[in-house]
Each structure stands twice: as C-alpha cells, then as structure tokens.
Amino acid sequence: MAENLSLKAFVITMKASKALEELTKKDIKNHGMRASDFAILEALYHKGRQTIREISESVLISTGSITYVIDKLEKKELLIRTNCPDDRRAVYLEITAKGKQMMDEIFPKHQQVIEEMFQGISESDKATVIEVLKKVGHQAAEKE
C-alpha cells in the first residue's frame, strides 16, 4: 500500500499544532494569564482599537464567551469599551495604558519563546511552511 502523504501531512500538522499550542499556553500561564485573555490583549496591542466582533473573529473566541473574558479584562483595567457613535450595536475595545505597559513587558518574552520554537529552522523553510499552511487553510475554508 502506498503511503498517503495527505494523511501523513495532516497528522504531522495536527501534532505540531498541538505541541506549539501547549508550549505557548504554558508560557502565557507563566505570566499569570489565560490564553484567551492574552489573545485579546495581544490583538489590541498590535492592531489598536477594534470592535468586539473583529476581536472575536481574529482570536477565534465565540462572541458568547468573549464577553466574559472582556468583562474580566475591563475589571482589571487592561482594556476599555466604548460605544460606536455611528452604530449602537458596535462596541469598540481599546487597550489601556496599564494593559499596554503589561504587554510591553510580557510580549517580548513571549515572542522569544516562539523564536526558540523555530530555532534551527531556516528562513526559507519558515517561508515555505507559511505558504503551504496558508494554501491548506484556504482550501479547507472553501469546503466549509
């Protein structure tokens, strides 16, 4: 029986994804945060003010669950909510100075952990992984 490379690629991708996820969750936890908290703050930290819907789509947290996480981050004064003056249904989120200061401290350390995950992988191989996984992701999305 011939080796099924698609199946093998799928299994290897899933195993690698799980290992990367576990390592990043552990790192985030070492900073006293949960992955969902970090994901929201990181999105606001790098992209600036966004609507709750935009955040929900970018960090892959359902709109039902995200409200709970946002409430906790708001109580800790790490982000603020503001109503959109043009659309009463839209609510903007923005990282506070306190949240930015915390991310200024945490994010470079987190980025270093990610750099270490890819240590020894050439820039060319990283570019190939990015290109291939984008193609796979787009094909999978088309089948939904």
Description:
- The chain has 144 residues and is mainly α.
- The protein has a domain at 18-111: Winged helix-like DNA-binding domain superfamily/Winged helix DNA-binding domain (Arc Repressor Mutant, subunit A).
- The chain contains six helices and three strands.
- The protein has a three-stranded antiparallel beta sheet.
- Strand 2 (79-83) and strand 3 (91-95) form a beta hairpin.
- The chain is globular, with a radius of gyration of 18 Å.
- The two termini are 30 Å apart.
- The relative contact order is 0.11.
Q: State the separation between the terminal residues, measured CA to CA.
A: 30 Å
- Using the coordinates above, name the CATH class of the domain at 18-111: Mainly Alpha
Could you give me the name of the CATH homologous superfamily of the domain at 18-111?
A: Winged helix-like DNA-binding domain superfamily/Winged helix DNA-binding domain
Mean pLDDT: 92
Features:
three-stranded antiparallel sheet, Arc Repressor Mutant, subunit A, mainly alpha, 71% helix, globular, single chain
Short description:
The chain has helices spanning about 5-30, 35-45, 50-60, 65-75, 95-115, 125-144; strands at about 50, 80-85, 90-95. The chain is mainly α.
Write the layout of secondary structure elements.
Layout: H1 5-30, H2 35-47, E1 50-51, H3 52-59, H4 63-75, E2 79-83, E3 91-95, H5 97-117, H6 123-143
Antiparallel strand pairs: 1-3, 2-3
Helix pairs in contact: 1-5, 2-3
